[in-house]
């Protein structure tokens, strides 16, 4: 039996460098690609620890920015995501993103919502920097899953959410939920025979018990309807007309 290494001793980079982390990244990338097949010409912000997943759209996107909260970077000793001509990386305060209003078409949130000190503020900042009809895609630990209750993976830390809790949180933050997906049905143990069957676990889990997935992937659209005041009905005015003689 392979001995489990406590997640916090390795951090996020260490987790993804290990066999279980490599399988996790591959499975999540497959679901993210299915939800957002291509983002040609789009400007994309990754919040949390999204750099390993932003690479999916490196060829087509107009701009990719990986924004990691200071607290997350320090706690996990994260290495900077290597930038290139179309991408950049920066450290941020989760409740004061250093971007202008309406800067991005898409926001990818990975290892962010569950670790946020104030999830509502983080989502409101994501809402602020998104353009009208912009899309948010969040990857969040599922409260019902085994992954959320074992501490040797990053999904066993922070605040997990049920699907209903996540939908209500997004709704209160002025997002309209449009799609849900599920991933990580393989049990979260670094046993190579188990990991070799990860694809079979994923297919069976989505068909039989999606409610027990390790993470929920939820796509939501920026909603502005709640901010637009209703136009008041015009006041009724009496008009006196002269009578014909």
Give keywords.
Rossmann fold; disordered N terminus; 245 residues; 8 helices; 29% helix; alpha/beta
Structure report:
The structure is a single chain. With 245 residues, the protein is α/β, with parallel strands linked by helices. The chain has one domain: 3-Layer(aba) Sandwich (Rossmann fold). Helix content is 29%, strand content 22%. The chain has 8 helices and 7 strands; from the N terminus they run H-H-E-H-E-H-E-E-H-E-H-E-H-H-E. It has a 7-stranded mixed sheet with strand order 3-2-1-4-5-7-6, with helices on both faces. Helix 1 (11-17) packs across helix 2. The longest helix has 17 residues, at 19-35. The protein is globular and about 45 Å long. The model is unreliable at 1-6 and 228-242 (pLDDT under 50).
Provide a quick synopsis of the model:
The protein has 245 residues and is an alpha/beta fold. The chain is built from 8 helices and 7 strands, in the order H-H-E-H-E-H-E-E-H-E-H-E-H-H-E.
Strands, helices and their partners?
Elements: H1 11-17, H2 19-35, E1 43-48, H3 51-54, E2 63-69, H4 70-76, E3 87-92, E4 104-110, H5 119-129, E5 130-141, H6 163-172, E6 175-183, H7 192-196, H8 198-208, E7 215-222
Parallel strand pairs: 1-2, 1-4, 2-3, 4-5
Antiparallel strand pairs: 5-7, 6-7
Helix pairs in contact: 1-2
